[in-house]
Amino acid sequence: MRHAKPSLHHPSHQIAAHRQHFRLERWHRWALYAVLSGLTVSGGVWLIARYFLRQVSEFGESLHPWEHPAIQVHGALAMLCLFLLGALLQLHMRRAHRAHRNRNTGWSMIALFASLSVSGYALYYLASEQSRLWWSGAHSVLGLALPLLLTLHILMGRKTRHNF
Fold first, then answer.
1. Residues of 48-73 as b/e, b for ≥16 C-beta within 10 angstroms?
2. What's the confidence (pLDDT) of residue 159?
3. Do residues 21 and 161 touch, judged by C-beta distance below 8 A?
4. What are phi and psi of 58, to 5 degrees?
5. In angstroms, what CA-CA distances link 94 with 116, 139, 151, 163?
6. What is the pTM (predicted TM-score) of this model?
7. How confident is the model at residue 45 (pLDDT cuts 50, 70, 90)?
8. Are 123 and 72 in contact (CB under 8 A)?
C-alpha cells in the first residue's frame, strides 16, 4: 500500500496545521541570532568609523583602521546569513505561510532581506561615485530597521502561537 506524502493542503492536516509550531530548531535560531547580531554590530562599527572617527590630515581624510575589517566581517556574515535564510524556506516560511501564520511581518522580513541583498550587491558591484551615497544610506537604514522588524516578527509569532 502506498502512503500519501503529508501536506498542509490535505484536509486531514488542516486542524493540525493550526496547532503546529513554526519555531526554528535551537541551532538554527541561535545561528541566525548570532549572524544577525554580528551583521548589526559590524555594520554599526563601519558606520561609526566611516562617519564619526575619520581623521583629517594635511593630505585629506584618511580611513579609520576599523573600516576595512568591519566591512570584511560584514560581507562574510552576509553570505552566511543568506545560507541560513535559504534553510528557512522549506520548514519555517513555507509552512507558516500556508497555515496563514504571521504573514504580515513574515513578508516584511522577506522584503527587507531582499532589499538588503540588492542594496548590498549594488554597493559592491554597481554603485558609482554619484550613487554610492544613496545606496549606502538606503542599506544603512534598512540594516538598522532589521533588528526592530525581527523583534516584532518574533513577538507577533509568539502571540499568534498562544492564540491557537
1. ebbeeeeeeeeeeeeebeebeebbeb
2. 80
3. yes
4. -65, -15
5. 21, 27, 20, 20
6. 0.81
7. very high
8. no
pLDDT reading at 156 higher than 80 = yes
Secondary structure class of 103 (helix, strand, coil) = helix
pLDDT confidence bin for 59, thresholds 50/70/90: confident
Is 13 exposed, middle or buried, given 0-12, 13-18 or 19+ CB atoms closer than 10 A? middle
Q: What confidence category does residue 16 fall into, taking pLDDT thresholds of 50, 70 and 90?
A: very low
Q: Which three three-digit cell numbers place residue 136?
A: 549606502
Residue written as grid cell 507577533: 156
- Return d(Cα 23, Cα 131) in angstroms, integer: 40
What are phi and psi for residue 7, nearest 5 degrees?
A: -145, 145
Identify the pLDDT of residue 24.
81
22 closest CA partner among 115, 81, 112, 109: 109
Average pLDDT, the chain: 86
Query: In DSSP terms, which residues pair with 55 in a beta bridge?
Result: 62
The length of the chain is 164
Specify the pLDDT at position 21.
65
